[in-house]
């Protein structure tokens, strides 16, 4: 399945056009290699998504063409999430 379609179907990113833009900007890696929106992904791949100041590492669990909202979370598991800046430290 194409990367941009997977991101939309799994609801990691709400719109396919946004997923395409982000991946074509080089902000998504598949197994450590920079990916484009047309890159193929398969179960077992690890995605690193840099979106704003947040970096998420996602493990692809399964690939399905369509899914319901409550079943989409079973398509992946979150390995880690980190933030470039801790905003709570700035608040006094």
Number of helices: 3
The largest beta-sheet arranges its strands as: 2-1-3-4-5
> End-to-end span in angstroms?
47 Å
Overall structural class, as computed from helix and strand content, comes to alpha+beta
Task: Summarize, please.
The protein is 22% helix and 28% strand. It has 92 residues and is α+β, with helices and mostly antiparallel strands. The chain has a five-stranded antiparallel sheet.
Describe what you observe in this structure.
The chain is α+β, with helices and mostly antiparallel strands and about 90 residues long. Helix content is about 20%, strand content about 30%. The chain contains three helices and five strands; from the N terminus they run H-H-E-E-E-E-H-E. It has a five-stranded antiparallel sheet with strand order 2-1-3-4-5. Strand 3 and strand 4 form a beta hairpin. Helix 1 packs across helix 2. The relative contact order is 0.19.
Entry keywords:
92 residues, alpha+beta, 5-stranded antiparallel β-sheet, 28% strand
How would the blueprint of this fold be written?
Blueprint: H1 3-9, H2 16-24, E1 28-30, E2 33-34, E3 46-51, E4 54-60, H3 69-72, E5 76-83
Antiparallel strand pairs: 1-2, 1-3, 3-4, 4-5
């Amino acid at each position: 399945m194409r990367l941009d379609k997977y991101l939309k179907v799994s609801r990691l990113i709400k719109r396919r056009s946004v997923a395409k833009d982000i991946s074509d900007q080089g902000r998504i890696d598949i197994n450590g290699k920079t990916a484009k929106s047309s890159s193929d992904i398969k179960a077992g791949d690890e995605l690193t998504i840099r979106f704003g100041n947040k970096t998420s590492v996602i493990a692809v669990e399964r690939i399905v063409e369509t899914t319901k909202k409550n079943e989409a979370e079973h398509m992946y598991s979150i390995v880690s999430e980190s933030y470039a800046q801790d905003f709570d430290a700035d608040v006094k």
